[in-house]
Amino acid sequence: MTAAAPSTVSFDGRFDSRFARELGEMAVPWQAETAPDPRLLVLNEPLAAGLGLDPTHLRGPEGLRLLTGNLVPNGATPVAQAYTGHQFGWLAPRLGDGRALLLGEITDAGGHLRDVHLKGSGRTPFARGGDGLAAVGPMLREYIVSEAMHAMGIPTTRSLAVVATGRPVLRDTMLPGAVLTRVASGHLRVGSFQYARATGDINLLRRLADHAITRHHPGAAEAGNPYVALFQAVIAAQASLVAQWMLVGFVHGVMNTDNMTISGETIDYGPCAFMDAFDPAAVYSSIDETGRYAYRNQPAMAEWNLTRLAESLLPLFHDGQEQAVALAQESLAGFRRQYSAAWSAGMRAKLGLHHDVDDDAASPLVDGLLSLLQAGRADHTSFFRGLGAAARGHREAARSLLPDPAAFDAWAERWSALSPDADAMDRVNPVYIPRNHLVEEALTAATGGELDPLKRLLDAVTNPYVERPGLDRYAAAAPADFGAYRTYCGT
Predict the structure, then answer these.
(1) Per annotation, catalytic residue among 16, 97, 210, 258
(2) Where are the beta strands (DSSP E) in 208-294?
(3) What is the pLDDT of residues 372-382, one digit of tens each?
(4) Within its chain, how far is the Cα of 221 from the centroid?
(5) When you count CB atoms within 10 A of the terminal residue's CB, does the N or C end of the chain come out lower?
(6) What is the pLDDT of residues 53-78, one digit of tens each?
(7) Which of 423, 442, 426 is nearest to 434 (CA)?
(8) Burial grade of 138 (CB within 10 A; 0-12, 13-18, 19 or more)
(9) Going along 171-276, which residue ranges are E strands?
(10) Are 149 and 138 in contact (CB under 8 A)?
(11) How far apart, in Å, are the Cα atoms of 126 and each of 82, 93, 97, 129?
(12) Which of 411, 419, 365 has the alpha carbon at shortest distance from 391?
């Protein structure tokens, strides 16, 4: 059941509806359910200002209605987007936005088009058995983690606001409901192309690809084969993105094809977490029973998703099937090379190695360190940050995190001989990440109406590389009694 027609007032003229206009076959016009008692929990004022939106206005009654989808400005056409998804390897042909709406697009202060998207705004025609709603906790998790990722320089969708709706949501218990307002350079996914291909309408597939080129990878338009160039651009973006995840110990948890963007931004922060103890087999998703999306599997799963994108784009690559497949395979072969290069460069930076240190010296150091970390289950973030102190001659912070100090000393002697740059290390090894126990602490408090823990955590993780007095607990590993950690998708 849709809500009554929303009012339209002073946000008029700021929004466009390009996706709804250009790709109507993949856009179902829809309205958000009315939030009976909207209350702002958190607003990203710098992001709002960058979008040309007045934070004071957003905090007012009209702003709250906009952030919940109950005010639709002239120029905006809220739609639920259609897409397919391989979910844990199984194909869901008609997935789509079951509890989300693309409110519209807005041009930011830099002249870039940005999607304004609602999550938890109610059932849509794609909702299947879901209620279309979201609880306060999962929406605040996305806000915390996405803003932490942005602060670390990792491409990501961003969070503009979380608004409590005043409507309870039934999960295991009754929980307070909320809507997340998300901002992204776009919401096109691998699953969007799977959906278009499955329709059999090659003209739709071509228009979708042209839209993606214009919006995300305009350089592809100048190539001899623009659609192969588009595919190669997505490969490059995803190779870089997943390498960055791996370097900071981020485990996405639900790398389905509907959660891989064409833009190369991280999307969907449901069952996600940062590693505490280094463990290549780390899984934090309650629904990933086989470890498909474990930490160490993320590069391979990205390649698998990109293969699905290639299958969808084949008719655009070449009129001949054999030639199209050959072009896809040639392009896909670049993923491992590009991922390896991005990851290796990132590891060299984390170790402070200078450009003149050749791979013959760097590779054994990296391999040896990863073996030490795995054997000792060292805290990933604390250890790499501690290496900055070790590069200054103070090894104890890193050394104490391993059960075999002698093995670390032997490794550190070889590393120190290469004169690592401690200041450069501090610029890439964060002090503060969204520690799982602190995230849970903040979410539990916020669900109960107490927002101070959330504010303190956000203050730490949105300035992750600068160590500050009074924030020791935000840099510390989880307490011993925290136990195994599991996250949930929130539906």
Answers:
(1) 258
(2) 250-251, 273-274
(3) 999 999 999 99
(4) 27
(5) N
(6) 999 999 999 999 999 999 999 999 99
(7) 442
(8) buried
(9) 174-184, 250-251, 273-274
(10) no
(11) 8, 11, 6, 9
(12) 419
